[in-house]
Amino acid sequence: TLSNVKLIGIPKMHDERGFLAVIEKNTIPFAIKRVYYLYDVPSDSYRGGHAHKEQHSVIIALSGSFEVLVDDGKTKKRIMLNKPNLGLLIPTQIWREIDNFSSGAVCLVLASTEYNEAEYIRDYDDFKNQCLG
Ligand code: TYD
Fold first, then answer.
1. Is 56 designated active site?
2. What does the buried/exposed string (b/e) look like for 100-127 if buried means 16 or more CB atoms within 10 Å of the residue's CB?
3. pLDDT, mean of residues 11-35
4. Residue from 35, 38, 47, 55 to probe ligand 1 pocket by mutation (most atoms less than 8 Å from CB)
């Protein structure tokens, strides 16, 4: 459910040279198997539009901003991400859509699984049915 969608603070170091943020073993609640990122996303385009049967994700706005819609089949919520030291934890069985990318936005995704199209739910009606079932 949406109560398992959480913002995670990423520890950061700061000195006169700037910030350094670190993600290590205990920062996020799963072992990272894959990292991917979205960039040069047109401001009117929309990403995501799927849920996962197995994959847990953490989404970070490494640069710029965008909005993430999360939906557990009952409740929807929009979260604006614009801080490189905040990660949005999205567990399995949560529908997500990402839009309103600012210019220069970089959306980093830490994933708990290797890429496997078979564990995607890309049809919203299928998603709704699996939530009810
Ligand atoms: P897609 O799932 O549409 O991206 P998003 O969730 O950001 O909207 O993926 C775009 C293409 O990239 C699609 O053909 C699947 C492929 N892809 C990989 O090959 N490996 C990956 O790790 C990911 C995330 C996607």
1. no
2. bbeeebbbbbbbbbeeeeeeebeeeeeb
3. 97
4. 47
